[in-house]
Write a structure and sequence with these properties.
- By secondary structure, the chain is of the alpha+beta class.
- The protein has helices at 3-32, 37-40, 46-54, 57-82, 85-91, 96-138, 140-144, 251-255, 262-266, 268-280, 284-296, 307-330, 337-358, 366-383; strands at 150-154, 157-165, 169-177, 183-197, 200-214, 221-231.
- It folds into 2 domains: 3-137 and 244-380, no CATH class; 145-235, no CATH class.
- Helix content is 58%, strand content 16%.
- The chain has a 6-stranded antiparallel sheet with strand order 1-2-3-4-5-6.
- Helix 1 packs across helix 4, helix 4 packs antiparallel against helix 6 (96-138) and helix 11 runs antiparallel to helix 12.
- The longest helix is centred in the N-terminal third of the chain and has 43 residues, at 96-138.
Length: 389
């Protein structure tokens, strides 16, 4: 690359990094606030909270990167136009296609990053997130059962302990179980311990009373016990395999899923849609870059407004992405939807290159500008000019 190419390349990537970090940070904060219950209801530390919520960042970067690239290219072109650098480069013999070359270099860098995230990093983060969530759930008995606090493990199951003692001993245990509509069970035990084995998780209660209220009976049944096991396996995933969803699978797992995979047998259409989304993820940066440059890359004087071009590029990119999302949804049931999406991307890139090579300046129609000017003049006559001091 020459000095001009390096200058544009560095400026574009620097702007891209700044926009990407800013947008990802804002969206990550909104997503992280949904998981604040990890620290409140489940007693997790701030490090666990940050670790779990940060695993979604690659998936966010995958969606935000093409948009951040479009904003970075718009900023760079607007900066070059404001400083009249595009005019100077055009006068020096730089064609629009030649000026587009450093932006292609920057787009290649972004596309490679997006391809890596789509094929490995994003599904790996989602996979770790699911595994971490399972481990937190598996340790729910140690995290939720806090001294002096009523913990509602299920809609109709409440447990309270008075204190914890060394060795995992729970003292002063109260259990209110109303999960069975035919009966209500209340248990009070002097102490107990949590036991986890191959059979599941159990709360072993010692020296207590069990009171059972059965529907249709007036008096409860009271039983005193020396040792009683309360099954808590439903609230623990320990020892169970974590079932991977479609988004948790790597690209090569989507390409050749196991024939006996139950998820693939039930959701083959979603496998197809996710696979094509992964393939098209690195293509979107090229489409967005070409569309943005087609609207903003032509040389203009400082007297020519760029507002229409900026608005047109935003609408074109937004429309292309929304159409892509629609095709992704339709691809679950329609195998031809991904083909339409590929054709849209190819048409967007082809039309943009045709505009760039031809040096076509995209401007609003003269009739539209006349209508806008007439409406402005009518508004001025209607409200009048402000009186001067």
């Amino acid at each position: 690359m020459g000095s001009i190419d390096k200058y544009i390349f560095r400026t574009t990537l620097a702007s891209f990094a700044l926009v990407l970090v800013s947008l990802t940070g804002v969206i990550w904060i909104t997503q992280a606030l949904r998981g604040i219950d990890l620290m409140t209801s489940q007693g997790q530390t701030i490090l666990t909270f940050l670790g779990v919520t940060s695993l979604v960042i690659p998936a966010l970067v995958l969606i935000i990167s093409p948009i951040a690239l479009m904003i970075a290219i718009s900023h760079t072109l607007n900066k070059l136009a404001t400083d009249s650098e595009i005019i100077v480069m055009n006068a020096a013999g730089f064609s629009p296609l030649r000026l587009f070359r450093p932006f292609i270099y920057a787009t290649v860098v972004v596309a490679v990053m997006v391809a890596f995230i789509a094929s490995y990093l994003a599904p790996d983060g989602m996979r770790r997130l699911k595994q971490w969530d399972a481990e937190i759930t598996a340790d729910v008995l140690a995290n939720i059962l806090q001294p002096g606090r009523f913990a509602q493990l299920d809609q109709n199951l409440t447990i309270r302990i008075r204190e914890r003692q060394p060795g995992g001993l729970l003292v002063g245990i109260f259990i209110d179980d109303r999960r069975d509509p035919k009966e209500r069970v209340s248990i009070v035990a002097d102490h107990g311990t949590v036991v986890k084995n191959e059979g599941g998780s159990f709360l072993i209660l010692e020296d207590g009373n069990l009171e059972r209220f059965e529907a249709g009976k007036r008096d409860p049944a009271l039983v005193a016990f020396g040792r009683y096991g309360f099954d808590m396996s439903k609230f623990s995933n320990q020892g169970h395999d974590v079932a991977l969803g479609i988004r948790e699978r790597y690209l090569w797992e989507l390409l050749s899923p196991a024939p006996d995979d139950p998820v693939y047998e039930q959701l083959s259409g979603q496998f197809r849609a996710e696979l094509h989304d992964r393939f098209m993820a690195p293509i979107y940066p090229f489409a967005f870059a070409a569309l943005t440059f087609a609207f903003l890359g032509a040389p203009r004087t400082t007297r020519q407004s760029r507002n229409f071009s900026i608005g047109g590029s935003i609408l074109a990119v937004f429309g292309l992405r929304m159409a892509g999302f629609a095709c992704s949804v339709m691809a679950v049931k329609t195998p031809l939807a991904p083909v339409v999406q590929y054709l849209m991307l190819a048409a967007a890139i082809g039309a943009s290159l045709w505009i760039i090579i031809g040096g076509i300046v995209i401007e609003p129609p003269a009739t539209l500008m006349e209508a806008i000017n007439k409406s402005n003049a009518q508004l001025l006559r209607l409200f009048g000019r402000p009186a001067t001091a």
